[in-house]
Amino acid sequence: MSDKTTTPCSNGQTACDAPTRPCESTLPCKENVGWRRVVRNFTPSWFAVCMGTGIVSILLHNLPYNAAWLQYVSYAFFGLNVILFVTFLGLSIARYTLYPEIWGAMISHPGQSLFLGCFPMAFATIINMMVLCCKQWGDGFIYLAWAFWWIDVCLSVATCITMPFIVMHRHRPGLQNITAALLLPIVPAVVAAASGGIVADALPDRAHAMTTVITSYVLWGIGESFSACVLALYFHRLTIHSIPPKEVIVSVFLPIGPLGQGGFGIQQLGKVAMKLLPESTAFGSLALRGGEILYVLGVFLAIMMWGFALVWLSFALISIATMQSFPFNMGWWGFTFPLGVLATCTSALAENLDSDFFKVSTTILSLSVLLLWVVVAMRTIKLAITGEMFHAPCLKDLRDKSEAAGVWFADQIAAIRLAMRNDEREGDPTKIRAVPRLQQSHPEMDWTNNSSPLRLDSFVDDLVEAWHIHRTPIIFAVLAVLVAARIYLHINVDKTELVALPKLYQEPEKVVIKEKTAVVKAEPEPKKDVKSQGPRRIKGGLAKKPSKPVEVEMDMTRPVLVLVFFSSVTTKTEKLAKEFMKTLEGSIDELASKSGRSFQKPELLDMTEIDFDDYFISPSKVHGDVDQVYLFLIPSYNIDSINDTFLEHLQETHHDFRIDTASLSPLLGYSVFGYGDKENWPTEPEGFCFQAKDIDKWMAKLTGRKRAYPVGMGDMGSDHVERLQEWANGVLEVVEHVARTGNLGEGLPGSGAPDESDVEEEAEDEDDGEVLFDDESNDSKKKNTGQALGDVEDLGAMIRKDDGSTGAPKAPLPIDFTSYGASTKKKTPVRGPKEMVAKNSPTYASLTKQGYAIVGSHSGVKTCRWTKSALRGRGSCYKFSFYGINSHQCMETTPSLSCSNKCVFCWRHGTNPVGTTWRWVVDPPDLIFDGVKLNHYKKIKMLRGMPGVRAERFAEAMQIRHCALSLVGEPIFYPYINEFLEMLHAERISSFLVCNAQHPDQLAALKAVTQLYVSIDAADKESLRRIDRPLHRDFWERFQRCLDILREKRFHHRTVFRLTLVKGFNVDEEIENYARLVEKGLPCFVEIKGVTYCGTSTSSNAGLSMSNVPFYWEVQEFVLALEKRLQEKGLNYGIAAEHAHSCCILLASDRFKVDGKWHTTIDYKKFFDLLEERGVDGDWKPEDYMGEATPEWATWGNGGFDPRDDRVDRKGRKIEAAKVPTKA
């Protein structure tokens, strides 16, 4: 009967899935050929290919013994993985869109449904490589990876919860049929946890990173706990029913996955937690110890899990060996990912334990995974081409169900017709004579049920099936209807008053809308009479506004601390600030007695000596749990100063989406006093105290309108003492009030706002309902608002209509002939880009006093003391000993005097411009090039009369042969640095360029340079913050990106790490961290130099003194220890040269050691020949222009002093040459 009632081939996929249908015996169905067959048979197990490809890319990127070409191979695997993932995702979407009934069949299948866990795990490998490879693309890319990670978390949690429940509720496989594939939907939680640790380590915002770490710990606990349950169940099944059959024998490798990935994840989370916890409020004073405990605990757990995984790996290999042969299927990809994550766990142990054993083990495992990937990929490609890989077992269940349903209904109809012919009860198959035959032909049907075949459960199944088929158009249709209804109601329905939170809108509605409208529509005729009778009547006093309820109750037991911030270029403001502090300290006791609160001693803080992040992202936490008031004493300058950097910081903080808009709202209040010069800037629109006003505006935004007292302004040429006293009295009164009440009191609408508004003026226009509006008063208001409202006045004149529609009579424009000329005599100048170092600025005076020649507006040149020494035959600098550069032919210059750091050992005296972005006038490179040469030659000519100058060297000095771009500032910051370098090289002037590793984009875009330096002043983040005091918030991430870029450039440029040792800052116990940085950047050379003490006030304020200058023997010990550690790490570096007079020693890579001799010098002629022959982007290596062997007198143990010259003491007396003792 079934053959006679078979549905025709045109009936969708049912006929096509039945291999015995007549239609398939003649012509193939369209669903079983071409792309449709691929789509219908594309199972979730294909995402295991992405898992294997992704883990290979990660392993190649993180190999302990790595090379540049391996990095490129890892990038290729990463790109391949992204392409595969996108392709597979598209095929999956097409599968369940074109054939929605397959989804239910797939979920019901006890094997295929478990592979849904492969999707989030494959996605996680892409997220990991995004963070590892693409950090240099900026924070935006990191946050994109973070967003992907949250999607992956949701998918992982969904599969981890739903699929085990479906297995329990629907599949119920029984103990004998349990396989390790049950781990597939659970392990994604562990993988997502490990990815969270990687993403959190790269996030620039600590709050976001902390949230990610906590979430990852939760995911790790979920995944590992669930996996432990399944492993116990699986081991129980193996002990009772032996190893699985050969079709699924590969699944024995799957338990290695949660063990390896769990070990890596708990190590990574502990590592990140150790960094984040000390910077958070978690655990209070135990935060530092808590982070260390989590880190050590993570490593301990990882060792245990690694051992368990090793045992299971052995067990799996033995199980595989017992099988003579087993068929190839998608399960073979189970070899790659579990072994790959075991390798990542091993790699993390190698890094944390610094173990060569784990490094070698990581390399072996990684290469094994790569070979397995190649083998499995080749087999997969071959079978995919033939089509054998496209087979979905779940479709068989769908076919069986469809066939059985068709035959069942056909037989029912036949039985009913037979019953009708025999006059028997219809619809009851148990009382029909044909039932035995039907039971024999279809034993899978339930013939004992006496109910109708159209039962309730069948009806529900049909509804569910119809929903799955048509759910997409139904959902979109409902959404479209809802959106259309919402738009219609928004346009046509009258808006009613809000029931919720009416007080939130009550006050602005009364002031701005209702009362103003009432005024305009009031009887116009009486207003005309009143206006004609006399002047406008003013009533004193202000209508009190209902005070808003206090939402947060202040803790009145906390002490109050007043912090006074000041900036000063000429030290005048500093002196005034110290005098103000004396007055403030004398008033503390009085404030405490009046307010009933305790006060801490106020502190005076110099803006150039503090880290803005510590005080202006959130209130300072240095002083403990206190209520704080910020006061500012700010002079305004039209030159670049710390004020510009501070204003830029406030603006960035306000616009940073990662930081709360009112992040300083916990402050009790703030106030600003500005110093200005009315002789040059007579009025506020012309620039009087403009920076104090700008600071007041941004502080109003960041504090949430907590201006405690108006901006005070004093003229340094006349009344600044009186104005400061008035402002101080008012501030003290407000501080007493806010300390006593916890708030600033009531204020008019607009109080504390960043900018001026007309709200208060409109409120004052009220007078018992009788308010007179005249053009004169309005014009006077607009005049008082300053030049900024000029365009608004013009607009008001344009829209004033002659038909009287404005509600007021037209009046003649008032013109004041007595003040017209005076009011328009001066106009507010348009502020354009400023000069970095203006000629009338203190910076210019300070630099020229120190011997600099300023070129243009931002460049400088100076004669080095070693140039003078070489001219007189008293020795050359270390560059001659190391690289063969004549000091008397060297020009020291910089095209940018601005820097993005405030290093503690800098000799710039605190007056040089600083900034994170270029915001000044840009001089063309030819102007700078010609200017620095001209000024350099001028300074050389000034030395012709100096006693002891050698005539031949003086003649040579008039021909520049080398340019050291290492003066004050940051040369790479100059936008046209490449063009400037080309001009140097065009005249065969070699170039040494030094950067501070804070500008990765400019470093990546740098073209040819003779030798490229990066200053490495610290080995870890906190030390770098203390020593360099960088302005960039993401300074450590920028630093790391620069090291990555330097690593890539090491085969095109001569790259150098310059380590400046500052005793007490970066010498003690820093060897290991420095070795890691060298391992990361792999420079050609490492220069280690002791800091030179300049004896300035700037250094003393930073805590730097002669005690911080290391002795030469201390530098020697440091270099020997660093050399030993590098060699222990397998890095071939050795001591190549020294210059004891400069307290400098050179480590070099073995790339520059030929026949047992170091070749650190440079063949400059060869360099220029290569440059002219192949261009700035030409393909050459540093070894191609390597010079002759380093002279014997410059090698280790010989001191490095030029034997042609005479060394003298401070009084010019000769010093006998002697070897410098060398530390063994």
What does it look like?
Keywords: 4Fe-4S, Iron, Iron-sulfur, Lyase, Membrane, Metal-binding, S-adenosyl-L-methionine, Transmembrane, Transmembrane helix, Transport, tRNA processing. Its cofactor is [4Fe-4S] cluster. It is found in: Membrane. By secondary structure, the chain is α/β, with parallel strands linked by helices. The chain has 5 domains: 42-391, Voltage-dependent anion channel (Glycosyltransferase), CATH 1.50.10.150; 400-447; 560-741, Flavodoxin domain (Rossmann fold); 773-800 and 807-831, no CATH class; 895-921 and 961-1194, TIM Barrel. A 10-stranded mixed sheet has the order 6-7-8-9-10-11-12-13-15-14. A 5-stranded parallel sheet has the order 2-1-3-4-5, sandwiched between helices. The chain has a two-stranded antiparallel ribbon with strand order 16-17. Helix 6 (101-108) packs across helix 15 (394-421) and helix 12 (287-322) packs antiparallel against helix 13. The radius of gyration is 40 Å and the shape is globular. Mean pLDDT is 76; it is low at 1-28, 423-427, 429-434, 444-456, 497-534, 544-552, 757-826 and 1096-1101.
CATH 2nd-level architecture of the largest domain: Alpha/alpha barrel
Which percent range describes the beta-strand content?
A: 5-15%
Please give the number of β-strands.
Answer: 17
Q: Quickly count the domains.
A: 5
Helix % is 40-55%
CATH class label of the largest domain: Mainly Alpha
Major sheet summary line: 10 strands, mixed
Averaging pLDDT over every residue, what do you get? 76
Number of helices: 42
Largest sheet, order of strands side by side? 6-7-8-9-10-11-12-13-15-14
> What is the fourth-level CATH superfamily of the largest domain?
Voltage-dependent anion channel
Distance between the termini: 99 Å
Shape: globular
CATH topology of the largest domain: Glycosyltransferase
Q: Output the structural class.
A: alpha/beta
Low-confidence stretches: 1-28, 423-427, 429-434, 444-456, 497-534, 544-552, 757-826, 1096-1101
Question: What value does the Rg take, in angstroms?
Answer: 40 Å
